[in-house]
Amino acid sequence: MGIFNWTEKPSQVLQSGGVIGPDERLPWGQTGLMGIQHVIAMFGSTVLAPILMGFDPNMAVFMSGIGTLIFFLITGGKVPSYLGSSFAFIGVVIAATAYAGKGANANIGVALGGIIACGAVYTLIGVIVQMVGTGWIERFMPPVVTGAIVAVIGLNLASIPVKNMAANNFESWMQALTFVSVGLVAVLTRGMVQRLLILVGLLVASVLYAVLTNGLGMGKPLDLSGVMNAAWFGMPSFHAPVFEAQAMLLIVPVVIILVAENLGHIKAVTAMTGKNLDQYMGRAFIGDGVATMVSGGLGGTGVTTYAENIGVMAATKIYSTAVFLVAALIAVLLGFSPKFGALIQAIPLPVMGGVSIVVFGLIAIAGCKIWVENKVDFSKNKNLIVAAITLILGTGDFTLKFGQFALGGIGTATFGAIILYALFNRSEE
60-64, 135-139, 326-330: lowest mean pLDDT where? Predict the structure, then answer.
């Protein structure tokens, strides 16, 4: 079957509780609506990540579409996945560029060079997996290691919203209102609204912010003039990469997290669809790696397969890759709208800070979830010590210097987890 050939299923299949497989699709009208839903699902995280790094969120959305198209083509349209901005890059990009947390990142080129290097290593891993399989990765990164690394990403980022995204007491309270809003949406709503807890919570908090500032004069007013003045159509803001060895050394270790994410996501989709997608694992890694290189080469963030969109598939039981093709095309079109980008930039910083607290916390918990789901045995000292040391290295931003190079935070935690596990595991044999 060709890459663009899907078996069409009638919409009545859904009414009877049926499933739409990766090589199937609904009529194009319903497929289009599902594509829009997937764009909405990825939206909150895909625009939040670049804002936290000082990147252009409009460019990030554009590159998420381009990246998903690349992934679709390289996997032959066999793997249903959406590629959005990766949160794994936030800590290392901030460290590499000394970004202060507000406005555009003046050293974005340095970050882009590191992102490209990371994508190149990721692609190489994909080539190796394509040739020899995934067994060596699973031995290299067991659940105790991947769980610790993922948890560290969230914990390492914790100080950013708490210390840098609230300038006064009002803004701190606004952060609190924001994460409470997100929490209420998560707990009290159902269906698609609950799936979009970040986006809906952000909208609610932004309205509250406008009432408290523009209405009651309690803080810096919400300014929508940039949105009103922005053009409907325009080119995304491209940036050229700068290749600095220290920045690349700091950013490249993120590849381990990207591999763990993609591996987990493909395993999840395999479980949901009942179709073994392991044969496409190497191509999925290559697709993600190439997409990350292309994104970094043009001025976008590093990309990764998105759990948000896998959640939508789980809820809808629609796994058609045609849906992701449509979603990618919609994202590309949004990238050509400066008005859309201006709307994102208008989100108040303390509101974004409150959302960040939730998102970073969820990342940390996702690491713990890996431990729970894989029944990691912490009665074994090797697991206990690996996890304990990794968490503190990452949270405390432990730094090791090698001459001119410095490896800190997420980097030391990542390499530390892998090396310590290999050392302790060998000593037990």
Answer: 135-139
Check whether 65 has a pLDDT greater than 70.
yes
Asked if the model's pLDDT at residue 124 lies above 80, the reply is: yes
Give the residue among 94, 407, 125 at the shortest CA–CA distance from 292.
125
Alpha carbons 394 and 150: distance in angstroms, whole number: 10
Who's near 429: CB < 8 A, 6+ residues apart?
A: none
How far is residue 221's CA from residue 190's CA, in Å, rounded to a whole number? 32
Of 245, 45, 263, the closest CA to residue 139 belongs to: 263
Cα–Cα distance, 412 to 23 (Å, whole number): 42
- Among residues 2, 4, 7, which one has the least CA distance to residue 18? 7
Question: At 399, which helix (H) or strand (E)?
Answer: strand 399-402
pTM (predicted TM-score): 0.73
- Helices 90-97 and 108-132 pack at an angle, to 10 degrees, of 140
The residues near 147 (Cβ < 8 Å, ≥ 6 apart) are 367, 368, 369, 370, 371, 374, 376, 387
Give the residue ranges of DSSP H helices in 252-398.
254-273, 281-298, 307-316, 321-334, 338-345, 349-373, 381-395
Residue (of 64, 102, 47) closest to 302 by Cα position? 64
pLDDT confidence of residue 407: 67
Q: Print the SS3 string covering 156-206.
A: HCCHHHHHHCCCCHHHHHHHHHHHHHHHHHHHHCCHHHHHCHHHHHHHHHH
Higher model confidence: residue 6 or residue 70? 70
What is the spatial distance between Cα 21 and Cα 273, in angstroms, rounded to a whole number?
Answer: 7
* Residue 285: pLDDT over 90: yes
- At residue 405, does pLDDT exceed 70? no
Helix pair angle (410-428, 143-156), 10° resolution: 160
Model confidence band, residue 127 (pLDDT cutoffs 50, 70, 90): very high
Report DSSP state, residue 311.
H
**Coil, helix or strand at residue 85:** strand
Question: β-strand 7-8 against 24-25: which pairing, if any?
Answer: parallel
